[in-house]
Amino acid sequence: MAETLVIFTRTYDFVTWLLPMSEKFPKSQRFVITQRLQNAVLNFQELLIEANALHGTKRSEKMKLADAELRKVRLYLRLCEKWKWLTSGQYKHASVMVAEIGRLLGGWMKYVVSEPI
User: Is residue 102 part of a domain?
Assistant: First the structure.
C-alpha cells in the first residue's frame, strides 16, 4: 500500500526536524517535557515499524498504540507553543506535519481493518 510508505517518509521527516529543534528548549525542561516529547515521537516511529512487520490483529494493536503516541506528541507540542519554546510558525509547521501523519495513519488503520485475514 502506497500510504504505508508515505507515512514512514513523513514521520522520518518530522523526527529529523523535531529532535534538533527540541534540543533548543530550556535546559531546565530537558529531562521533563523535552524528554517526553522526544520519547513519544520516537515511540511512534518504532510502533509504525513494528506494525508494518505484523498482520491482522497484532498490526491493529500496534497501530492503536502508535495513535496514542501521536496524541501525546500533539499535547507536548501545544505545551511547547504555549510556553513559547516554539514560535507560532514552528508550531504551525509541526501541526501541519502531525496532521498529515495522523491522516496517513488513519487511512492505514482503515485499510488494515478491511484487509482479508
Answer: yes
**Does 24 fall in a domain?**
no
110-115 long-range CB contacts below 8 Å, 24 or more apart? 111/1, 111/3, 112/59, 112/60, 112/63, 113/60
- The answer as to whether 71 is a domain residue is yes
Domain around 80: 53-117
Q: What are phi and psi for residue 54, nearest 5 degrees?
A: -110, 175
Q: Which pTM does this prediction carry?
A: 0.90
- Does residue 72 sit within a domain? yes
Q: What is the mean pLDDT of residues 61-81?
A: 97
Helix then strand count (H, E) for the chain reads 4, 0
